[in-house]
């Protein structure tokens, strides 16, 4: 089978044998994926900021030193880290 024959048969199969999602449903699913992607990227950004504070020492210094006031961002980061630790702990215990 030559490459040209293979390409022609492939296009014929795509045109005649594949059931495509209706256009309106495809648009709705695209919107769902876009919204989920934005929400997930915001979550990853918040987690990144939380771990960035931990790694740079800002979060630990805020709790131990007292010179740096604990802001809402620090509280949020502690909550995010606690949620991640809880999820990891529960997933680990489910596997056993």
UniProtKB/TrEMBL annotation:
Q: Which InterPro entries match?
A: SecE_bac, SecE_sf, Translocase_SecE/Sec61-g
Q: Which residues cross the membrane?
A: 29-51, 71-90
Show the GO cellular component annotation of the record: plasma membrane
How is the quaternary structure described? Component of the Sec protein translocase complex. Heterotrimer consisting of SecY, SecE and SecG subunits. The heterotrimers can form oligomers, although 1 heterotrimer is thought to be able to translocate proteins. Interacts with the ribosome. Interacts with SecDF, and other proteins may be involved. Interacts with SecA.
Q: What is this protein called?
A: Protein translocase subunit SecE
Function, as annotated: Essential subunit of the Sec protein translocation channel SecYEG. Clamps together the 2 halves of SecY. May contact the channel plug during translocation.
Q: Which family does it belong to?
A: Belongs to the SecE/SEC61-gamma family.
**Pfam families found in the cross-reference section:** SecE
* One GO MF term attached to the UniProt entry: protein transmembrane transporter activity
Q: What is the lineage of its organism?
A: Bacteria, Pseudomonadati, Bacteroidota, Flavobacteriia, Flavobacteriales
Q: Quote the NCBIfam families the UniProt record gives.
A: secE_bact (TIGR00964)
Chief location: membrane
Instruction: Set out the biological process GO terms recorded for this chain's protein.
Output: intracellular protein transmembrane transport; protein secretion; protein targeting; protein transport by the Sec complex
| Alphabetic keyword roster | Cell membrane, Membrane, Protein transport, Translocation, Transmembrane, Transmembrane helix, Transport
The record's subcellular location field reads: Membrane
> What gene makes this protein?
secE
